Task: structure prediction
Amino acid sequence: MEPNPPFPGASQEELLAELATLRRMLAEVETPACAGEGEGLVILRLCSGLDLAGWEVLTHRQELRDWLALPLSANPLPFLARIQKTLRELVFLSEHDPLTRLYNRGAFDRILAAELVRATRAGQSMALVLFDLDDFKAVNDTYGHPCGDRVLETVGSLLLSEKRSYDYAARVGGEEFALILPSVGLVRAEMVIGRIVEAARSLKIACDGAEAPIGVTISAGLAITKGKLDMAPEKLYALADAALYQAKASGKDRVVAAPIADLTGPPEKTLVRADEKRFLFTGLTKG
Result:
């Protein structure tokens, strides 16, 4: 009779069952108030018969990006390369929207603040543009959310292709995008954004359930600082947002520029009601 192996391994089914149990237990455990920030455990589990290719399949299917694996006897270099790749992906996902691959709102806020400081120190202009897809809710309602996602991906790709290498493109909301254009004044920014809005009109996006490729339009609000005064990110964003609202109110599918931030006082509070703004952005009224 052969002795039991000293380190019994787990099959894929057993491993997944154990992971599910572990996740459930961790969700139920209350972290003690006295626990230090660096405290925790590294959990090891031998998985016999599982190679790197099989592990990669599991990580993608089961969302195990934060789990690391190393072989006991095989060459560890491919595994170390994979860990390195995983860490790069995690860093990317922490700052980017997974659907469009653009910067997410957190990264956008950080970059905007840093670029405003840089523009003020250098005394250079900088442009902030907010884009909104016109009547996007109708796309989701008519063709479904997969089609809506395809539209968002397509517009994200358009921004990436049209921006300069040192511009920053972000998805800052459901159907709202942003561009940060360093060292750009009003005239140049209007030309760049006008070209993007025009290019969006020519997009034809194939969706399941649609008899023909659908078209989209976008509205844009542009705000400029000349770098002459300290500028709070919130103020520049508010100016761009107000200009975007005007673009919607003026008929959509256009660019509206706000007064240059350094030459104006604080933006006046708008008296537009929430339901009016909802109608302009979605074409729908409440109820």
